[in-house]
Amino acid sequence: MARDSFPTDDNDDDLSGPELQALESELPSLARIRRFATAATRVDWFAHVGEHPGPFTMDMAEHYADALGFPDARVALVTDWAEAAAAAETLDFDSASWEAEEQLRSALTMDALAVLSEDALSVALTHVAATIHAPIRTSVEEALAIWDEPTDEMLDLAVGSAVQACHQAALVLAAGAEEDHPFALRFRLFEGGRWPIGVAGLSFNLF
Q1: Does residue 203 sit in helix, strand or coil?
Q2: Nearest Cα to Cα of residue 162 among 59, 88, 68, 67
């Protein structure tokens, strides 16, 4: 038998025509998510935290807050890691921004499940998390070392926020959402080396 030939005999374990078509229909979305995960490992995570942002970054930050549903929120520049950690911890008490993100996440998940099976979506999101966690953690450790900051709690907060942003961005891809979706904008802020911590009250904290 030639090396590139395959058996053609039928058996009960073969995929049926409809099952095979369903699998093939998911491949483009899964391929996009896989490429995204690979590209995310090359992002300069947290490379420009604390730096004064240029007009492009400020415009994107304002666009994100507006798209999230907080048009009156103003960008508040966070200057160091201690302030960033404090701002990240306060997000647990700001139910408005948390609820807005949860609603967006839920809507994206529903849209994604119209394209992918539940199992395929779960596998894809798990792959993203497994692929990007170590590179993000290494980047945070390097950034903290440059600032001569202890790792401890700040490491977990920063890594968790970045991993969440990747999860959200992968959902945007899976659902085929627009490029200016709030989660896409949030990821691009991370991609620019910043830490978009989140909206609290009338402030969008950006490190």
Answers
A1: strand
A2: 88
pLDDT in tens, 110-123: 999 998 999 899 99
Q: Which amino acid is at 108?
A: L
CB 72 within 8 A of CB 96: no
Among residues 189, 154, 162, 182, the alpha carbon closest in space to that of 51 is found at 189
> Per the confidence metrics, is the pTM higher than 0.90?
no
Bridge partner residues of 203 (DSSP): 74, 200
Q: Measuring CA to CA, which residue among 145, 138, 198, 143 is closest to residue 168?
A: 198
130 contacts: CB under 8 Å, gap ≥ 6: none
What is the tens place of the pLDDT at every residue in 28-44? 888 899 999 999 999 99
**What per-residue confidence (pLDDT) applies to 27?**
79
Cross-strand partners of 77: 206
The secondary structure element, H or E, covering residue 200 is strand 196-200
> Residues 144, 151: contact at Cβ < 8 Å?
yes
Do residues 196 and 206 touch, judged by C-beta distance below 8 A? yes
Q: In what order do the strands lie in the sheet with 196-200?
A: 74-77, 203-206, 196-200
Domain locations in the chain as residue ranges? 26-206
Distance CA 150, CA 68 (A): 32
